[in-house]
Amino acid sequence: MGKAYTAVQAARLARVGIQTLHRYLRSGKVNPKGIPLGDGRMLWQFSEADVEKVKRLRAESKPGRKVRTKGAEQK
Question: How far is Cα 1 from Cα 6, in angstroms, rounded to an integer?
């Protein structure tokens, strides 16, 4: 493994907000290495490949608010 980045560092490198990065984590779009801290928190270590994946996800997403259509399934 090359250089490891924290969540804040990875977000800055990928030019996304920390909330966006956490949303990608929750949805499973990015899977960095996680180290449990023992008090219910997790220390995420993002590799350079993880940061590049976040950059690709950012490029693919359309800016603006996402609107659900009536009758669409909700999660």
Answer: 14
Cα 2 to Cα 6: distance, rounded to the nearest angstrom? 13
Token pair recorded at residue 39? 């008090």
What are the sequence ranges of the domains in the chain?
7-59
- Quick one: tokens of 8? 């804040």
Give CA–CA dist 15/13, Å, rounded.
5
pLDDT, one tens digit per residue, over 11-58 is: 999 999 999 999 999 999 999 999 999 999 999 999 999 999 999 999
Q: Which one, of 40, 24, 26, 33, lies nearest residue 6 by Cα?
A: 33
Read off the pLDDT band of 69 (50, 70, 90): confident
